[in-house]
Specification:
The protein is of the alpha/beta class. It has two domains: about 170 residues, Glycogen Phosphorylase B (Rossmann fold); about 170 residues, Rossmann fold (3-Layer(aba) Sandwich). Helix content is about 40%, strand content about 15%. It is built from 16 helices and 14 strands. The strands form four sheets. The protein has a six-stranded parallel beta sheet, with helices on both faces. The chain starts with a strand and ends with a helix. The relative contact order is 0.10.
């Protein structure tokens, strides 16, 4: 089969790309041909289909342009005529048996769904966030969980300036949701795949095409994990690790507060983000000499850092869909101390594969860190349980079998 895989980027960007890259490998290993459709970028993997990609949109540069240019970019982020036109060209040249959509909002936009429907091409959409039911996509407003837009009341995003704390950005986000709801292009999708039970229930709660929602855990290729385990590690003081974006919703500030009560325990932080300077300033002001910012690393380097750790901390304060960092840590035989929010409790089974704590509770987190670091036998046993659990929950075989049920003949 010829499978159209659509994603905003065609290079390593984060968890969405980890899934897309693995999905492409699964399809190709089963003898299918993958045709990508994304946004142009010098970092993209090479493909003969790049001429069909849409032009790059860099929102960081929008503010530096004229007002007219800014308005054009904003309108393009809601309804992309370019994506529609380019996809029509692609479909005229290549026969597509079905389309697998991933992250497309703000760039490619749901306008492509209409084109696919007109060609009678079946559509699967793996949901990586919550944009169709939350204009800010993460259910967080000013650092707090927010579900005010329930029932399509997207104006709440504007009145509370949820998007980046900006009235203008929030207005654009709300307008985008109203336009897509009015055009009803979402109805053209045959199946919406939810990678976690939590996300599945949340979309159902918001009455988003309930009859089309399917819960199916991601697949994962554990080859890179096994490669990381084979690389010899330098002997050093035991440490714990956080891996992810340095943003408030990821809870790193809570982790640093916890480390104030964990003297002598070394923490490595892998990643970068908008909160990096603020977090480093907190470290200096509070004399946290046991905290080390490692910066952003490639996948293999990150896996090596995790492999050398006693365990991983996932202190998120938002509705995580399914964190691949947790998957990789558990696959490496590492327990995880995670916040009891979103899809995290589906991977971190309390007192078995790690510990759960109340999101934002630095005191509770500190207590669990000390408990696990002071009990190496417990850490080892939980690591074994973690590896077994994650391999059963997240694997390519189950994922592909689930997709086969959705697409006849796959």
């Amino acid at each position: 089969m010829n499978i159209l895989v659509v994603n905003w980027a065609w290079y390593a960007t984060g968890g969405d790309w980890t899934y897309v890259e693995n999905l492409v490998n699964i399809y190709e290993q089963k003898g299918h041909k993958v045709i990508p459709f994304a946004m142009k970028d010098d970092r993209n993997l090479p493909t003969k289909y790049s001429d069909y990609f849409i032009e790059n949109i860099d929102y960081k540069k929008v503010n530096k342009r004229s007002l007219t240019a800014g308005v054009k970019v904003v309108m393009k982020s809601i309804y992309s005529y370019e994506a529609q036109h380019n996809l029509e060209r692609l479909l005229a040249d290549v026969k597509i048996d079905f389309a697998h959509i991933n992250v497309i909002h703000h760039y490619i936009t749901p306008t492509i769904l209409k084109i696919l429907k007109q060609k009678n091409i079946p559509i699967i959409w793996t949901l990586h966030e919550y944009t169709p039911i939350c204009p800010d996509s993460i259910f967080v407003s000013h650092g707090e969980i927010c579900e005010r837009c329930f029932g399509g009341k997207f104006y709440n995003c504007i009145t509370h300036s949820c998007k980046k704390g900006s009235y203008l950005a929030s207005t654009v986000a709300a307008l985008e949701n109203y336009v897509h709801k009015y055009l009803n292009y979402y109805a053209y999708v045959d199946h919406y795949v939810c990678p976690s039970v939590f996300q599945y229930k949340k979309y159902k709660q918001f009455n988003f095409f309930n009859e089309k929602l399917v819960q199916l855990y991601h697949g994962y290729n554990y080859a890179a994990v096994e490669e990381a385990k084979l690389i010899a590690l330098p002997v050093e003081v035991p440490y714990i690790v956080f891996v992810g974006r340095l943003e408030k919703i990821k809870g790193v500030h809570t982790l640093l507060k916890a480390m104030q009560n964990c003297p002598g325990i070394k923490l490595k932080i892998v990643g970068d983000g908008t909160q990096e300077k603020e977090l480093k300033r907190f470290k200096e002001e509070n004399l946290l000499s046991n905290v080390y910012f490692m910066g952003k690393k490639n996948r293999l380097e990150t896996l090596q850092v995790i492999n050398g750790a006693n365990f991983l901390i996932c202190p998120s304060e938002c509705y995580e869909v399914l964190g691949f960092t947790v998957v990789e840590a558990m696959a490496l035989g590492k327990p995880v101390i995670g916040a009891a929010i979103g899809g995290i409790p589906e991977m971190v089974i309390n007192n078995k594969t790690g510990f759960l704590f109340e999101p934002g509770n630095a005191i509770q987190l500190a207590g669990l860190i000390k408990l696990l670091i002071n009990n190496p036998g417990m850490t080892e046993q939980m690591g074994l349980e973690a590896k077994q659990h994650i391999n059963q929950l997240i694997n390519n075989k189950k994922h592909f079998e689930g997709l086969q049920k959705l697409i006849p003949g796959l």
